[in-house]
Amino acid sequence: xxxxxxxxxxSIVAHIDHGKSTLADRILEYTGVVTKREMRExxxxxxxxxxxxxxxxxxxxxxxxxxxxxxxxxxNLIDTPGHVDFHYEVSRALAACEGVLVLxxxxxxxxAQTVANAFAAIEAGLSIVLVINKIDLPAARPEDIAxxxxxxxxxxxxxxxxxxxxxxxxxxDLFKAIVEHIPPPNGDPQGALRALIYDxxxxxxxxxxxxxxxxxxxxxxxxxxxxxxxxxxxxxxxxGKFTPKPGAxxxxxxxxxxxxxxxxxxxxxxxxxxTLTLASNPTDRPLPGYQPPQQMVFCDFYPGMxxxxxxxxxxxxxxxxxxxxxxxxxxxxDALGIGFRCGFLGLLHMRIIQERLEREGNVTVVQTxxxxxxxxxxxxxxxxxIESPSELPDMSNIEEIREPFVNAQLIIPAECVGVVMQLxxxxxxxxxxxxxxxxxxxxxxxDLPLCxxxxxxxxxxxxxxxxxGTADYHVRGYDPGDMVKMDILVNGVPVDALSVIVHRDKTLxxxxxxxxxxxxxxxxxxxxxxxxxxxxxxxxxxxTIKAFRKxxxxxxxxxxxxxxxxxxxxxxxxxxxxxxxxxxxxxxEAFMSILDPDD
Amino acid sequence: xxSNPPITSPSLAPCGLYVHVPFCETKCGYCDFYSVALKDRxxxxxxxxxxxxxxxxxxxxAHAVRxxxxxxxxxxxxxxxxxxxxxxFVYEAVNVRQLEEFTVEANPATVDDEKAELxxxxxxxxxxxxxxxxxxxxxxxxERLHSPEDIAPSVATLRRHxxxxxxxxxxxxxxxxxxxxWSQSLSRAxxxxxxxxxxxxxxxxxGTRLTAMRRHGRMTPCDEDIEADMFLRTFDTLESAGxxxxxxxxxxxxxxxxxxxxxxxxxxxxxxxxxxxxxxxDGRRYKNVADVAGYVRLIxxxxxAEVDSEIIDxxxxxxxxxxxxxxxxxxxxxxxxxxxxxxxxxxxFGEALMRLVDLGLVTVSDTxxxxxxxxxxxxxxxxxxxxxxxxxxxxxxxxx
Lengths: 599, 400
What we know:
- The complex is a heterodimer.
- Chain A is 25% helix and 35% strand.
- Chain A is built from 14 helices and 34 strands.
- In chain A, strand 4 (99-105), helix 4 (112-123) and strand 5 form a beta-alpha-beta unit.
- The radius of gyration of chain A is 28 Å and the shape is globular.
- Chain A starts with 6 loop residues before the first strand and ends with a helix.
- Chain B is α/β, with parallel strands linked by helices.
- Chain B has two domains: 15-265, tm_1862 like domain (pyruvate-formate lyase- activating enzyme), CATH 3.80.30; 314-392, Arc Repressor Mutant, subunit A (Orthogonal Bundle).
- The A-B interface holds A 525-527, 548-559, 561-562, 564-565, 568-569, 571-572, 575, 583 and B 16, 18, 33, 200-203, 224-225, 227-228, 231, 248-249, 261, 263-265, 270, 272, 276-280, 285, 287, 308, 310, 316, 319-320, 323-324, 327, 355, 359, 361, 376-384, 387-388.
């Protein structure tokens, strides 16, 4: 039975690029679990995509021995993803820990995700070690940054640890701080088994590998276990720890972190956050578990050039078994064929899933513009959620439309306050507060509609703060908004696939932009084509595609016939890829480009 | 020459004979017909070979040749003796007295008294003259060699020798041309009293110097709206001067329509001889090699110079009927369509046709489907719309 007082379970949280992965590498290397020779750069980021994008998507883990004052401590690192979209994965990791390292870049200071993650750890009641990293850089200001963190996050700057993940400076101080400031787990190894499944991965040879943190009790190979929420029983075939490669051990006990294999075939059979207990001696106090991830952003995936719907479906099913953080359902569009409506945690999540589909599933994906979920309260009192404007019920039956709002933290240079306020106002943001982190840096808190930030808010924030601004948000709930459905009419005929839900104040702007882009995509026809944006029966914007005036072959004699006929055949092929709406041929690309978020 | 008997003989459809003479003084930048500079070449072997192919083709064709057309290139650039030989081949092969029309293309300043006399005495009834423009700068843009002053004397020479019908070709949409200069060219052409005027919108054909220049931005094409105005102005000007539009680019005094070209537009058979010439007889179209030396070699070795041929199936024929006959003001003959395809075109084009009618681009009468004035401006689109109609005709075809 392990000595609980020698165990430390911790995560590292940081803003993107503050050196979390590099620091994790040093921890593994300094504790000897991975030799320098074995050390791939950023060992823990084991997906290609993660390495390429420089971000951690899936939480990782390792058990590291650390000798201190004559005793050997087991430090269980539970790595977390860094991006805003992966809050839920962060919260999973935090629930398996007693402490957290809040990592801050010594040159950049506290950033939006530092704040979000640190507050999540504080709320979870974890002990926090403030780590100021990258102190090897010439521009490092570790003391200033520590004070900034104290001011913003309320952490004690005097206990801050200064490190460099790159050079290894300060690693001993870090280990000491982990041992001394993070409490050991408290649990009863003899009690009824309570273990949290905080993650799970699929392995083609062994089935599902569940990552677990044991709170009470002990389990070993051969035990019959119950997954309490799932209501299913399995026999444990392997118990192990990550060092960081999986290695079998005799058993896992209260306070320990590791994995088990139990003949579970697919990830669908496992609920992350479920409580594991022994069938022979079940606990009557299951762990609280997790809120299921909430998909907030939706878009459609259609097979792109050279791919079929079946290929895309297969790729989506395969990826979903490995990562069920997104949802998908078949949708049909007259314009675009058969595709999938997918739900994501955020925009980055959406991009990553798309890239993984293309890379791992070897398909091309055409993606439509993202939209958010709306809550619709009907006059009869019922409330439904819709993921697409086409699902919107008849307006006369609607009591109100509620849109998701986020609480957003924007950390920006002080001189950019004006432009950021302007940007937030344009996005219907409500200013909550402004705090000075230092004389030169400001944290602004805004209440913002999610639909206003899913398009290009980050890009705009970056460009108006010369790249220094950072943002983080969490969805706080739904509020009624003056939302309307805007229809787009081509030659007088409404085109379903082009309808959008938009705030009444934005209809004119959005309508004009949409029509301008549509105009560029549709060829001139024999007749003038009016393009209209309408709210109900009221037209709010209009563009006209002029009729082409002259399209006639001047000469067509005996020697020209074959060539001209073949030209017509070519045109005929082209027409097949068009959709005709109200006598107007709209190319498939038009639907895509109009929906393109990159305004 | 007999005057305009009905175009279809009851027994067997008449047939046209096209002879391609691929020589020019120099090659114009916009031209995509096959031609080479004559310079120091000896045309004799080519003329021999054309004669040989002409004899074979005409003798092997069940249809009686009723029209002859010498095109090019510039047929009249041939030395007198070679031109005489070529004309003589026609005289030997076909019954010239039964011809309805015998056209030779010419350029201003390429026809002197001797040649005009030769043409007329050989049975040539019509000369088509590439006047193109009456403005020096426009002719220069087109890389034409003649000057505006050459046009009237050339026409006078032809008239003096008794050429029955004269056509003038004009081009609009030339870079730098305005509605005003185009109107003036039209008036100058009318003043010369030709029987027929062909007005072509300048076309940027693939592979021509003109197209390359536009691609490299060394030349700005005429604005589409101005070109459309020119097209309409042409119609108004020529109609009021007594020239009736009978095809998109062709206007004639009553009875002076080009009978040979009408064969193309009515999808009737034609024989083609010479380098790059195409022919279409009995549902089979062929094309000769577009190379003088290659043509001579093939004719001498194999007796023909075809490098391409296709059998026109029903689907192709439908498209060709629409594509060609809609060019005519009279339009697509419902009777001909029914006879050759087996269904009424009004049925087989169904909704697409009605949509075009609703848009005011097409009219449907008891006998014809025709373009309207505004439909003519966008003829390609109309044809494309109809060509894209799925083949319901397949289903309706009678089982043979």
